[in-house]
Amino acid sequence: MTSPRIVLFGATGYTGRLTARALLAYGAQPVLAGRDPARLEALASSLPVELPTAVADVDRPATVRRLVRPGGVLISTVGPFTRWGEPAVEAAIAAGGVYLDSTGEPTFIRRVFQRYGPAAAAAGATLITAFGYDYVPGNVAAALALKKAGDDAVRVDIGYFVQGNIARRASTGTRASALGAVLEPMYSFRDGRILHQHGRTRIFLVNGRRRPGLSIGALEHFALPRTHSGLREVNVYMGWLGGLTRAAGVMARATPYIAAIPGAKRVTEAVADRVIRSADRDDMPAVPGLTTMVVAEAYDGEGNRLASVELSGGDPYDVTARVLAWGAIAATTGGVAGPGAVGPVEAFGLERLLRGCADAGLHALP
Q: Is the peptide bond before 87 cis (omega within 30 degrees of 0)?
């Protein structure tokens, strides 16, 4: 098929629908792609501009490969990504195109960099994974903190926090992805390499309040060392659990043993499948007052904090849709770094990415 430069795969899902509308708001006219023709038609008819559609299914990888023309841009919002995300990555590599996705899944991020990055580099393709609220704000905040800290910085800690009822806002895809990631190995970046890590916690000072965070595997572990060669340690923490953080840390330290139990992974996948099948496909309700804060702190080799940067934003789903839309358009108009698997700052440059984040409602606090 002959397609426009931007294809949105997974367009009928929750994040996909938000991203389609964000692309239109930015002036783009993407191909809407998904596996259900009826749902694609319903989405297309609900939009103010007539857009082309294409049927593609991860169970038939050839249909996904046909979406991407040489040099085209493919946005994927098809999750859980560890189960269904790879055909889109492979399609972008085969076409030598630019790939962006909305994943927040640690295992998939690691897979993109370690398994697919070399193949993308050889094919002239650029892979930009986790290009949404997970984990663009942390990369930007960390890059700003490291820039302020200077050459003495060897460590950066990043914390993601939310104000408001995020549980009420969580989409079906988010819930399924979280269930799928429960037994997956977490990691950090230490001594210049990726290492396994489970259950580490720490306290951040956010808007004058002490907020706990639980360590998670994230994009920053792979992306930041590529642009800051002096880094020896990168830590990322999720601060959405509040008072449950310490208990979650204890459970996280037990996950390697639970995952070793025969059939444990199949059980979590079965529960995730049930969540997906029972989902209400209507839009999730907006949560008034839902805001996000991302904190990045740079340290020297003695553990002295050299600099701190905070980014504030609104609804994580809106931020993700707008960042994805901005990134796809920026890739078609101003180009993108590569080839290979790259982080967001490496892909677009810090100043350009800062402008994109501002467009998406993410702002660095003075």
A: no
